[in-house]
């Protein structure tokens, strides 16, 4: 029994010692963090080639503007989560990890988004990323990427930042809700039509009962009066149907217009997705990323996107037509460059069209 009690007391002493040491270490660490001032704020930005949209100075300025710059603060005052969140708010930043050392160093590892093109249509000046993310060109350094110009209506504002697909999906969801709400608005009209028909049946089912002492003249007069009432009820029912049908038709027209808008949005999203894929292909091709200096957008049939290219090595324009099969058209253009223009000469044509399938038309 005494041995067991002694063993328990020994265990308790060991746990007490561990608790005391842990508490001391925690207090020591807390005191150190409260006393240790941040002595270094270092930001390592992963970029590729000439596509550096950010540098350490710009991100330090960004943290200062958002009041999370750790310099001049103690380690205890630095919230690494808030620091990461603030850096991630910068549209050119893809990901960020923050670390703190025991000696007062705050280290940030930042991955920058990869730009594919610069969108400069109308009053827009935005960068398009490889993954389809876009944002205004302010707050970043200019990079060497193809410029997208022309006259093409977009579905996002000039200060928008995010994915175009999100805008489209939100708009389509909103339209779908509107269409459903309009369908609900038709239900009272259907009920009014049923009520009007029920009232008509009630009147048309009426008949004149000839009493024992009713004269033939009186009976005929009442029948004629009832006939007039029924005719008037039918006319009223027809007018009521016209009114109700007109209101239902107006609602259905709104639904039809909403569906048309929805299809246009879906087409715009599809075109922009194809454009994004195309500029990504160009960005990953050493030759075309250097050769294509400008992508010109225009609206074709029913607002569909059309694309033309302005090359660096010649004065001609390459008409790619609509956004279908852009990758195949680029392969055809590559063959034409290699097997045609190098032999014919770069100044032979002013216009090259790949608008039609398996055809290259030159002027």
Layout: helices, strands, pairs:
Elements (H helix, E strand, L loop, with lengths): L1 H34 L4 E7 L9 H10 L14 H10 L3 E8 L4 E8 L2 E5 L6 E4 L3 E4 L10 E4 L11 E2 H41 L11 H68 L2 H6 E8 L5 E7 L5 E6 L3 H19 L6 E3 L7 E2 L1
Parallel strand pairs: 1-3, 4-7, 7-9, 11-12
Antiparallel strand pairs: 2-3, 4-5, 5-6, 6-8, 9-10, 10-11, 12-13
Helix pairs in contact: 4-5
Describe the structure.
- The protein is an alpha/beta fold.
- Among the domains are: 1-35; 36-113, membrane protein fhac (Ubiquitin-like (UB roll), Roll); 167-266.
- It has helices at residues 2-35, 56-65, 80-89, 164-204, 216-283, 286-291, 326-344, and strands at residues 40-46, 93-100, 105-112, 115-119, 126-129, 133-136, 147-150, 162-163, 292-299, 305-311, 317-322, 351-353, 361-362.
- The strands form two sheets. A ten-stranded mixed β-sheet has the order 8-6-5-4-7-9-10-11-12-13. Strands 1-3-2 form a three-stranded mixed β-sheet, covered by helices on one side.
- Helix 4 packs antiparallel against helix 5.
- The longest helix has 68 residues, at 216-283.
- The chain starts with a helix and ends with a strand.
- Residues 22-26 have low confidence and may be disordered.
């Amino acid at each position: 029994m005494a041995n067991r009690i002694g063993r328990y007391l020994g265990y308790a002493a060991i746990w007490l010692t561990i608790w005391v040491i842990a508490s001391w270490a925690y207090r020591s660490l807390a005191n150190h963090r409260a006393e240790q001032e941040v002595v270094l704020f270092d930001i390592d930005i992963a970029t590729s080639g000439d596509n550096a949209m950010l540098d350490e100075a710009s991100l330090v300025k960004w943290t200062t503007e958002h009041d999370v710059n750790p310099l001049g603060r103690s380690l205890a005052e630095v919230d690494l989560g808030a620091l990461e969140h603030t850096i991630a708010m910068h549209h050119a930043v893809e990901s960020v990890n923050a670390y703190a050392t025991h000696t007062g160093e705050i280290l940030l590892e930042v991955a920058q988004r990869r730009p594919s093109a610069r969108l400069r249509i109308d009053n827009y000046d935005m960068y398009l990323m490889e993954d389809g993310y876009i944002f205004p060109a302010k707050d970043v350094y200019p990079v060497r990427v193809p410029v997208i110009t022309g006259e093409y209506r977009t579905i996002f504002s000039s200060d928008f930042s995010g994915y175009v697909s999100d805008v489209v999906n939100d708009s389509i969801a909103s339209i779908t809700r509107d269409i459903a709400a309009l369908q609900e608005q038709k239900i009272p009209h259907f009920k009014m039509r049923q009520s009007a028909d029920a009232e008509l049946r009630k009147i048309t089912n009426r008949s004149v009962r000839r009493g024992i002492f009713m004269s033939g003249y009186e009976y005929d007069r009442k029948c004629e009066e009832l006939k007039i009432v029924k005719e008037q009820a039918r006319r009223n029912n027809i007018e009521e149907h016209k009114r109700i049908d007109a209101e239902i038709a107006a609602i259905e027209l709104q639904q039809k217009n909403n569906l048309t808008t929805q299809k246009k949005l879906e087409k715009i999203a599809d075109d922009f997705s194809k454009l994004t894929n195309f500029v990504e292909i160009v960005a990953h091709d050493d030759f075309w990323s250097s050769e294509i200096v400008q992508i010109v957008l225009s609206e074709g049939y029913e607002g569909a996107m059309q694309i033309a290219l302005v090359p660096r090595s010649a004065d001609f324009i390459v008409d790619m037509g609509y956004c279908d099969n852009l990758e195949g058209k680029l392969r055809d253009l590559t063959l034409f460059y290699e097997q045609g223009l190098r032999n014919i000469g770069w100044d032979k044509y002013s216009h090259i069209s790949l608008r039609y399938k398996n055809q290259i038309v030159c002027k």
